[in-house]
Design brief:
- The chain is built from no helices and five strands.
- The chain has 56 residues and is mostly beta strands.
- The protein has a five-stranded antiparallel β-sheet with strand order 3-2-1-4-5, with no helix packed on it.
- The chain starts with a strand and ends with a strand.
Length: 56
């Protein structure tokens, strides 16, 4: 299974904007906060693995 690392760029209501940090990319991904750990803030580093997000 693939592993992806992200950083929370911004939080906008029920959504968070995530940017990949494990590769060079300027693309931002919009993710529902219900899929993310509840304690995230801007700047939180996340790991996406096995179809779930966890804090690094």
């Amino acid at each position: 299974m693939n592993r992806f690392e992200y950083v929370v760029v911004s939080i906008d209501g029920d959504y968070a904007n995530l940017k990949r940090t494990d590769i060079e990319s300027d693309e931002v991904k919009l993710v529902a906060r219900a899929l993310l750990p509840p304690e995230i803030t801007e700047g939180t580093r996340l790991l996406y693995e096995w179809m779930s997000y966890s804090i690094l």
